Automatic annotation (TrEMBL):
Transmembrane domains' residue ranges: none
GO BP terms: cytoskeleton organization
Entry superkingdom: Eukaryota
Pfam families tied to this protein: DUF3402, N1221
InterPro entries linked: Far11/STRP, Far11/STRP_C, Far11/STRP_N
All copies of domain Far11/STRP N-terminal, residue ranges: 80-350
Protein name per Swiss-Prot or TrEMBL: Piso0_005274 protein
Organism encoding this protein: Pichia sorbitophila (strain ATCC MYA-4447 / BCRC 22081 / CBS 7064 / NBRC 10061 / NRRL Y-12695)
Amino acid sequence: MQEEQVSIDHLEDQLIDNPDVLTKKEIDNNALDETFQKKLNARAEQIANQRGIAGQSRRSSGERSSSVYGIADYPFFTNKYNLDYDYKDFEDLATELSEWFAHHDYKVINLDALGTNRSASGFSVASIKEELSEGTLDHLDDLLYYTFGAYRTCFTQGDQVRNIQRNCCILIKNDILNPLALCLKSFYEEYLIATNEPSFSDLDEETECAYFKLLTILYFVLTVLLESKDEVDFETAQESLASTDLLSIMVDLIQKWTWRPSQCIRARYLIMITWKLILIEMGDHEEMTEVQDFLLKKYNINRNNNDGRKHRLKCSPLDYFTFREDLLDKFPLCEDNNYSLKESIAKFDSNFLNSDKDADPALDKEYEYFMALNQHSNSMTNLIEHPRPNKEHTVLSQLPAQTVHISTPVPSPPSTPSEFMAGGEKVRRSYQINQAMPFIYPTTEDSKVPAAIEEASEIIKNSVYESYSTKQLWNERRLFMVQERGYVSTYSDEVIEKEMEINEETYSEFPEHRRSIRSLLRVESFYKQNLSRLSSLVSALIAVMKSNRYDYNLNYAEWELNPETSYLHHNLSSESAENKGKVEYLLMQQLEVIRTKEVTLKACSSIVLLLLKWFKLSHIIKYYQLSSMLYDQKYFEVLFEHLNRSINNKDLQELKRDGGENGMNEPFSEYDLIVSQNQLMNPKIELPKFDFFNNCLHQFPSTFRYQFINKTPLSNFPSKIDANNVNQVTINRYNRNYCRILVNLLNIANKVLIKNSIQRIFTINEHKPSEILKVILTNYDNKALSKPALKILKKIVPYQGRKWKSLNMELISKIYLNCQLGLRDTWLSGRDLDNDFNNSVNQEIALRALIQFYNMREYPESMKALGYGISEDDPFNLSM
């Protein structure tokens, strides 16, 4: 048995620490857990065969066989539910366009009358563009009909989609975006003037109709622009939108709506256009990858190991500094001048005031400087990234110092009655050594440090990885400390030279990365113009999330809309026949409200997630600013309330499921109700009578069965048993919109839980997130969905009790196998919980102070709009 355990340990070492060439190839082709399971199955089969041979020899010798040796004769398998979902920045063109409209919008734009007064052949793009440039909207209906693909000449939905794509590409090539943006900008200015009047209530019907038509044309053109990047001059369209700064106008209108809600603003449509503008002007996730590669090249950051591998165990500079501090405490006789802190204290002022560019940027020098800051200063920023050596650990510091060498030969004392429990069992005691005290074992004359410690030090030093975000944070922290100590004012560009800045000069340095530089500059200009309005976007997201309550029972609508279960259909009379159409229209309106809220939440969550990612690429403090706004708006509370309503909600469930071969409906179990009938698993609400393309072509399906609740349990989805005896169940029917929403919301939650922010971890722990996340991870295996959930769990695991850890070892194993681990990672144990709790609030305050300092120095005008200003007076008259 011991030999088998050694073999399994050797297998883990082969997979994780020292993989061979064949194992590396298997890991690259498959997931780590699948490779591990495959090798475990092979080892189990080998053990079973060995036992089978032993059993046969025993039986041949007349011994009685045990049931253990027959385990290979009983195959077993486990279920793995794979959610067939691939995250995309936008869906197909038909889906994106149809999600824009609600049914009452067709009356606003007069869809039935479009194209009847003027044929598409007489349409002139040049004349329409000239009229829009002059601000006249006489032929706006003709432009709208042309944008809709001249649907009166189409026969199928595919024909209309192709016409829409072709016509909108023609409009883009004729630079229709600039006059459209100018018209919306003029409306925006008129609206601001009108809202200042006390008697203002709403816009008149004609103005509101023209405004909505402009928004619709703009949305169609932007959506086609995203879909047809290769067919048009995409960079020219980007520059045209950036020159008018239409994105800031949309954000400002959303801000006005949050202050003074009004139906005429049409906030839902502004949110959807804002989403498309961010994707166009800043970029999608593919563009983010290119920008990240550019930043790594600009800041000379190498993510690969010495042997060229990307996937390696790494540690932060802070982890390395902590290790060096523990090494000096443990081995005080270590004679290494590189780690002396005496000279670093004297150099503290000169490093800033003289701006010595020839300073040695080596890691040892950074260690000297960083440790000097944390040990010999009382800066607020020490709490943001504070090294925690063993001597500062609450538990380890309470251990007594070693007085006797533990290897000294001393005879064991005789057992006394006090060492035994009442039942006679001996009391087990654990002896812990204070790791912060000096090492008292004998050493050799050649080395004051054991060879194993020297090897560990070299491994950790070679594994240090400093990202560009860490560089930006430390640079900002140094500037903050100069301002904090009052040596010089860092608010003046003449005193402190800016570092790590992307500007117009970067084009000449990296001409091959013009696209990435343009995206970063657009992010910078957007943040500068809208810093005072960012809270409005956060408020809009929170408001949309709160409005998605799902308090409408979908069973009633499904029963009544389908003829076989409709009460009015089976009880036809003169009165019921007359009211049947009204009842169906009312039910569809209620369902459309649910669908519209879902689409709006998808746009809101996409906006916030894109901004968080782009802000982090631009500057780490921008990312901290937006995440702090989300935290202040109680994002965690709203999120888990929303998830609980979406996963376990009686209005989204039905007690019966579809019959099998016998045709009988069997009741769902309680667990099946939760995991098979929720907003994720229920089909997306489809209303053919309200669909945009059906209303354009007047083609409605004669027979359509409405289904709003999933009747199939997860175990009845298509499945296949693989070579590892795992039943791979493929979930291919679900709500794609809500799956995207769920991915976005979990990613946002993970990004709000920024690194080393303990107060936010305590806040999310109050909502017990592990239960709902466990349901998601266990039943819907998908990389886009599992990755943020596991990252959230990894951050909160150290602050759970022993009982929780013992009951959730499966989650801990998933984190270990699927999340990126560090070389000195304390995510499972080793955290100083007492210190974390005592310093959590002060740490959040220090973070806010650093954010405010950065915004005041870089964007004083935006901060002035929020009520902040820089005082040049000397209140204590301390000037010499």
